[in-house]
Amino acid sequence: MEIHLFSLLAKHEVEKYESMDFEAGGYKWKLVLYPNGNKSKSVEDHMSLYLAITADTSSLPLGWEVCAVFRFFLLDQNKGKYLIVEDALEKEKCFHEMKLEWGFDQFFELKQFNDTCNGYLVDDTCVFGAEVFVTKETSSGKGQCFSLVTDAHSSKHVWKIENFSKLDGSSYSKVFEAGGQKWRMNLWPRSHILYLDLTDYTPASNVFAEFTMRILDQVNAKHISKKAKHSFTASSWFWGWHDFVSSGDFYNPASGCLVNDACLMEAEVTVYGIPGPM
């Protein structure tokens, strides 16, 4: 897993980054990286790294358990060699419904990592890896590159919905482009559910974006808005809110949300990270 412009993870306050799924021993896995440490474990001055099983637990039998031996790698780009990190005392870890990930809260000290003389972060680029053994099967190697965008620009799209009272089920905006990706807004008018969809996702998609959704106040310009950050993937290609606005606020004439049975929805999207070839 190669990450370009690593420092932007901290700049954009990305607490956790997850890799694409990869396969080992007939199961799917992913790397889970906390670039500034797992705060839920009170980690300071270290990054945290974990291996997580991503199997659809509904397809596994009751009481399932998958045991694996794994080790992590961190590339020393100066020497062209990998630092190997593994649990020397208890190599085999058992993954189950109550324990979906294993790894290291204090994977590597940030001071050493950020020192370019050590070769782990060179030109703001770093490379992590994992080797996973399930029972006696070994996975074939696969790679992923995740590039952060230095000159990210936000794009806005306004969606005018007329005859709002006649809407029944979900309604979609026209597809629009932001950050080289295609998006659309998805509204459930009766329950005020509002999502942002990545429409051109593929199995390799992993688009990290920050977005703001707004219901525009057509009277006083006091818009109702909510902001979120999300990694859009093939298994998580939409994100949003189930209760974006209350019915009382939306239908209140003073709010300006609904004028002449029409409302204006706006999405502002900034793409900060996209997948790319190794």
UniProtKB/TrEMBL annotation:
Keywords in alphabetical order: Hydrolase
Full protein name: Ubiquitin carboxyl-terminal hydrolase 12
Organism: Melia azedarach (Chinaberry tree)
